[in-house]
């Protein structure tokens, strides 16, 4: 089954500048996740192998509308960049072992799955936004920055919904909406960062370069919130 994921990674990294190849790679990855989920009887959201693969697939899924966007003139560059980003995180998943255990009682709720899935969709959109911002800095096409702002806005909405569902899950799991863990603190930092970012975008054309760089930095904050906190700090949210 893992061969499907390896094949998807190869297509992402070496052929994703062609849109049909990108779609084929995403299809293989989704089939892998579907088979894995069917074998587990749940969404594969436990452990670094599953979460990195799910995050990678989320980037691919969120990128689909942009591949057909009229405002995106440099579609081959976007397809290749997104393919490299998607392939990189899927490649990072390969060294980790798969965890085939059933969900612990504390995680066995739809609120947990909803919380995690929405967070990954948000992270994926922040990553796509960072790519669009980089393309804007390279090509100076204002339409790219406009598209990036819409991406960040939708990602921010997903992330806000993830925080709400996470609070509900926390209440059922621990009897409180907030535990002051490192993951929760960095989640708040990320949410505040994008709250400020969305307001910064409204300051006018002279702030365009600053906005583009802020989008790239924001994705770095998102990756640290996801991976950095889990690897460097003890938290009830670690993977």
What would you note in describing this structure?
This protein has 239 residues and is mostly helical. The protein folds into 2 domains: 1-102, no CATH class; 107-239. The protein has 8 helices and no strands. Helix 3 packs antiparallel against helix 4 (75-93). The radius of gyration is 18 Å and the shape is globular. The relative contact order is 0.11. This is ResC/HemX-like cytochrome c biogenesis membrane protein. It is a multi-pass membrane protein. GO terms for molecular function: heme binding. Residues 60-234 form the Cytochrome c assembly protein domain.
**Helix-and-strand structural type:** mainly alpha
What kind of sheet is the major sheet?
none
The N- to C-terminal Cα distance equals 22 Å
Q: In which range does the helix fraction lie?
A: over 70%
Number of strands: 0
Order of helices and strands: HHHHHHHH
Strand content: under 5%
Broad shape: globular
Could you name the ranges where pLDDT drops below 50 across 5 or more consecutive residues?
A: none
How many structural domains can be distinguished in the coordinates?
2
Question: How many helical stretches?
Answer: 8
Radius of gyration based on Cα positions: 18 Å
Mean pLDDT: 88
GO molecular function, one term: heme binding
Protein name: ResC/HemX-like cytochrome c biogenesis membrane protein
InterPro entries: Cyt_c_assembly, Cyt_c_biogenesis_CcsA/CcmC
Main location: membrane
